[in-house]
Model the fold of this input.
Amino acid sequence: MNEEKLNTDQKALQINIDKAKYGTFAEIGAGQEVARWFFRVGGAAGTVAKTISAYDMTVSDAIYGPAERYVSRQRLAAMLSHEFNLVIERLDKPRGDKTQFFTFANTVTTRSYTRQDDGQGWLGIRFQGAPRQRPSEVIIHVRLLDPEPVREQEALGIVGVNLIHAAFYKHTSPINFIISLLDGLSRQRVEIDMVKFSGPCFAGVDNRLMTLQLVEHGMTDAAIFTADGESVIASEMLYKKAVLVERGSFRPLTNPMLDMLERAHEQFMLEKSLGGETPVTLMEMTLKQLQVGEVIDHGDFLDRVDTLRTLGRPVLISNYRRYHRLVQFLSTYTTKSIGLPLGLNRLKDVLDEKNYEDLGGGLMESLGQLFRKGVKHYVYPYLNRETGKVMTLDTFQPAPHLTHLYAHLVTNGFITEIKNYNADHLAVSSSWVLEKLQTGDREWEKQVPPPIAELIRGKKLFGCK
Done:
């Protein structure tokens, strides 16, 4: 078989006739949609040791232990651990010297008569790359976007087969592994917004880079990882939380950028809607901002992430060129307040009608999403280097026909000025810092947070001389 052209049937059959692969299927939530493919193509006795569907919550708890939520990463982890241990306990002695054992599991929710939201869930595989090798593991989170339950179930089955096949035949190339997960599907049917690789088959794999791959290859429009590099889904981090997001290229993060974030945070915390709650603070990079020239340099991306790690903040990678798309994404996962610090020059772009010519509703369509209730924009002043004057919300002049709209946004608190900023920072630009850094002029160090400057010097990041 030509591996590059395998359809779902062929992938399942290839595994069935591979005598070295043998394991268990445990599926909760949408039927045994993955195991069904292996039975349908024939030869399943060569692959399937057991299938199980513990739908009843009491039964599921009795097998895997109690869980706060049944469609969760925690439930998936319990399923993989329990079922894989049973396979090894029962089958390692008679056939462990020639068999690569595995457990595939999923816990999902799809559309039903009583539930009309998009389906979503967790899939994972724990497997041996060679007989008696310590197991490796891959887990993913999917959103099922078909409008009919039967189509969602079909898509789930295909993704599951793709995941199992990739684990055995594509684990030496994690990027190809990721790309293959949507074989036989389209982005309109399935979104994969989280992936995590672990174990000896993936030694050296950086899950932060794998998170970037999901966005870069169109598997999702946005993905998140923690400061420690742990891949998470948006609902795990943002559900019922206030959120503050700073967008930038962070090459590197400079003192002015940090000042903008910290001053915005101070003012955001004073909002009555927060009630004293500390918001989740995200550092967002878009694919466009990650480009060095015309391509995304993956090593450069990891360098940026390493510097941001010193702040202990999670990182959001997105394909949202416009701010209103970012707000739409965040509002999907939280009903709490959203804060966006941005420079005054960036606000000028936000209010420029030329940037929305491809939208049916133009600028107003974008602003309707961007300035929705609970969203605050904290604007950092801007130094006009030609005139030497500091531009503020009071001196900013939008297009004449937008004057009243602008006044409405300011008067009603959708846009507010950042106070107590450090005026000395206004003369510093990221391009100036990068130029000094690359030419060996150590003046740049005064304009970068000390932990980040130390890391840049020590590892010679961004072309540091």
Observations:
- The two ends are 51 Å apart (CA to CA).
- The first helix runs from residue 8 to 16.
- DSSP finds 17 helices and 18 strands in the chain.
- The first strand starts at residue 21 and ends at 28.
